Amino acid sequence: MPGFSLELDEDQITLRKWLHEFATDVIRPAAAEWDEREETPWPVIQEAAKAGIYSLDFFASAWEDESGISLPITMEELFWGDAGIGLSLVGTTLGVAGLLSSGTLEQIGEWVPQCFGSQDDVHLAALAVSEPGAGSDVSSMKTRAVYDEATGEWVLNGVKTWITNGGIADVHVVVAAVAPELRARGQASFVVGPEFKGKGLAQGQKFRKHGIRASHTSEVVLTDLRLPGSALLGGKARLDERLARARERQVALDRGEQVTSVRQKGGQAAMATFESSRPAVGAQAVGIARAAYEYALDYAKTREQFGRPIVQNQGIAFMLADMKTKVDASRLLVWRAAWMGKNNVPFLAGEGSMSKLYAGETAVDVTEKAIQILGGNGYTRDYPVERWHRDAKIYTIFEGTSEIQRLIISRAISGQQIA
Ligand SMILES: Cc1cc2nc3c(=O)[nH]c(=O)nc-3n(C[C@H](O)[C@H](O)[C@H](O)COP(=O)(O)OP(=O)(O)OC[C@H]3O[C@@H](n4cnc5c(N)ncnc54)[C@H](O)[C@@H]3O)c2cc1C
Q1: How many Å apart are CA 325 and CA 77, to the nearest integer?
Q2: 48 strand-pairing partners
Q3: d(C-alpha 20, C-alpha 23), whole Å
Q4: Following DSSP, what letter does each residue of 237-270 receive, concatenated?
Q5: Would you please indicate which residues are annotated as catalytic (active-site) residues?
Q6: CA gap 51, 13 in Å, rounded
Q7: 407 Cβ below 6 A of ligand 1
């Protein structure tokens, strides 16, 4: 296992420089337009595919880096460019993470390449977990998957909501209840290919949002969606085994016996996927926060009031000092968690959640301070900081709200069932 190091190797320095150039030359100039249009920026995704940034090979090599740091570097640079476009470029990896956490090697080999498509035919993927009645509490999911013994098919019904790339993705990974009485332990993931669009899977309402408006967010409606048995990720034998264990556990619990806790053993399809992606999501927030800090610092050095640059006022300079400190602290937490995750070091104090919590709240705070430093200009759409502030807010909400991150950390450090 490589030790934790803050020193980037040559490959990581090259990667960062390359992505920074792409973010500067391609993403930033397009950001305001796609935010206003509230549409998926297909031309930018296509350009990223041509440059080799939107591709399976690219994300696989970032993923494979043993230090764990290449993925957060990638996220930070792309989201420094723009968070809405950034999410359009990396939203696919949510679906990929769903495949990797639950699929067999064969399913991963078959489906992951289809999530990205090719340079000439770009595809997107989505991960559909959340429902109108099941956001933070994923265990109360109502979408049902019922096995049809006669045909060997799975039949899915339900409504998923707030799904990134929902309905426009070529590959949807859908989490559904197969044994609702077992709650989170009775869920399974299914892969849904493009042939089912309009044949059981449909896009519902497209949401108009506060921020990350270039990223498509929609309901996904499943109506008698009949999937072949092979769509069940992990396969039927593994599912039957898992359900049998969960039922035994339930019987033991009903008898009042001690059983190993859900959190020690894991076992929730959706939660496993989210846990592995948290440091990368934190890195996205670091990118937004750094963009706002850099912009505000430049502005404060050139904007003059009372005959001197505003940065010469302690009130402004101290704000910038706090902003820089928090951005760097966020990055350190993110890199530590990414290194731990990659090297299977257990998150005994909820370090993955810590990184996402702190980086998300930092992004909101730093972008708000950036507006303050820009004054009236900061409040207008002629300057990017108001967009960054709108974008930052999602980082205290999705992939587990700040309260849920605090819940995970507090349970981890106290060993208590804090409600
Ligand atoms: C733009 C966007 C993109 C998204 N993309 C996806 C996606 O691709 N796939 C997907 O499956 N989902 C996605 N989501 C859904 C997202 O993960 C949920 O919105 C999130 O988990 C919160 O759920 P909720 O909105 O139902 O809030 P709720 O769970 O209703 O929470 C409301 C408030 O109550 C608090 N709260 C809830 N329970 C507790 C508790 N036990 N203790 C203390 N406070 C609590 C929350 O922290 C929050 O402040 C997306 C959401 C958005 C907005």
Answers
A1: 19
A2: none
A3: 5
A4: HHHHHHHHHHHHHHHHHHTT-----HHHH---HH
A5: 399
A6: 18
A7: yes
The two structure tokens encoding residue 284: 């996205």
* CB-based contact 99:107 (threshold 8 Å): yes
Across the range 189-203, mean pLDDT stands at: 98
- What single-letter DSSP state applies at residue 147? E
**Residue type present at position 404:** I
For residue 264, the model assigns a pLDDT of 43
Pocket probe mutation, ligand 1, options 206, 401, 407, 409, max atoms within 8 Å of Cβ: 401
Token pair of 64 as six digits: 């494979």
Is the pLDDT reported for residue 265 higher than 70?
no
Cα separation, 212 vs 390, in Å, equals: 7
Tokens at 253, concatenated:
């619990």
pLDDT band at 275 (very low <50, low <70, confident <90, very high): low
Percent of the chain beyond pLDDT 90?
91
Residue ID of nearest Cα to ligand 1 atom 29:
136
Distance CA 243, CA 366 (A): 46
Q: pLDDT tens digits for 309-340? A: 999 999 999 999 999 999 999 999 999 999 99
From the CA of 209, give the closest atom in ligand 1: 1
Q: Is 312 in the pocket of ligand 1 (CB under 6 A)?
A: no
Residue 382: both structure tokens together: 């002629």
Which is higher by pLDDT, 57 or 269?
57
CB neighbour class for 274 (10 Å; exposed up to 12, middle 13-18, buried from 19): buried
Answering whether pTM is above 0.90, one says: yes
Relative to beta strand 125-128, strand 171-177 is parallel
**Mean pLDDT of all residues belonging to the chain:** 95
The whole-number average pLDDT for the span 126-145 is 97
Residue nearest to atom 32 of ligand 1 (CA): 136
Q: Is 156 helix (H, G, I), strand (E, B) or coil?
A: strand
Q: Is the CB of 94 under 6 A from ligand 1?
A: yes
Beta bridge partners of 164: 217
